[in-house]
């Protein structure tokens, strides 16, 4: 079994031992489930942070897969945002983040003056820093500096997103110094097995991501010359090999449930969602050949034509754009509210990558009965491909080092090879080097023929969108930042769609913390300086 598989049960059990069941009002009152420095083991605390981290990031990705058209959104934006993301009675993502933040600050306190914990604290700062900027990216202002300190601040105030970002940048810089100075390892590191060079590559890459993310408003985080700062990173140690990719690997463990969330959705029981027709169209029909990744990304359960059997009535609906794409790729359009056709076993589901499901070789077997990887998929968080796309965007929009076209090619190829090598499977339907070359040549020809930098950026971000399958956090951010892909499908059943530029606060927190008032989904996070109605 993969090393992660051996450890996941231990970590999950440690989570229950440390925290018990979910609790609410975590930063408002004394929480008996929180560990203090006097009672904490830093190894267990960092294990718990790793567990909370992958759980939080995985859930945030699930929350925006439909908003970003990877899955089909079967409601309107206001309805789906208020139900699925941070609002609601449980607010698990909100709670999980603040439990991780509490543990993080405990580790930092334990690490003061203890050189054996330098690497522990550095990893802690990087993981919780990534969670923190993700919280800001989704909701804007958050309780941060006063949070998880109930004795001094029983009700934590909201902090501006730019101030929180700046604090995370300072933590990243300190983490890099601590990694370089560390001599003691973290024995259960689920990401890089205490490889210091890989952690530093991740830290630099996370910083690059932050600088590109905030490029429209970089002065708000104290960056007066982002070009200089980004060029320093480009000249240094970044994630640039698959071995350095920052990802979480799931295990085929059922108790506790440790399989990829996509696998749980599509293979453990009948698929209750639909894949997005727009995303499938982009893979299948948007170029002169199919995307070489399509059989890895998607799995078709049945060779049934929905226009023949009486499940799908989309042909009678004037608003539907794609309806049915052919070749048994069966999903729904964005915002399609007519569901429940009884076709769960005929729908297209998640495939081999990143879900750990089945590779599509025209077998047309129900997902639950297919030969698959039993959910041993990955959470692709910050990969070589993503770093190259960010570098290409930066080179084009800011004039940083590197040729945008060359970086675009490197980004696409990194994604293709990662996907094609996933699972070490053998099949006559595997993508070929020739198909990858033809795909890349077509994209680069379109890029060379583009009439403006705006059109060129559209091509870069569209390819980023296709490579980011499995991480809609990236897609949600770059869509708000750039407005691309420009051909993205607008909700078909909403005459005046209002894309959520941010998400609601935890309903529990709004109810109990007088400093937090619920906000509209039209409120923009600090780095999103684009106008209202910019995207739909």
UniProtKB/TrEMBL annotation:
A Pfam family of this chain: SusD-like_2
Gene3D superfamilies attached to this UniProt entry: 1.25.40.390
Record keyword Lipoprotein present: yes
Record-linked InterPro entries: SusD-like_2 (IPR041662), TPR-like_helical_dom_sf (IPR011990)
UniProt keyword list: Lipoprotein
UniProt protein name: SusD/RagB family nutrient-binding outer membrane lipoprotein
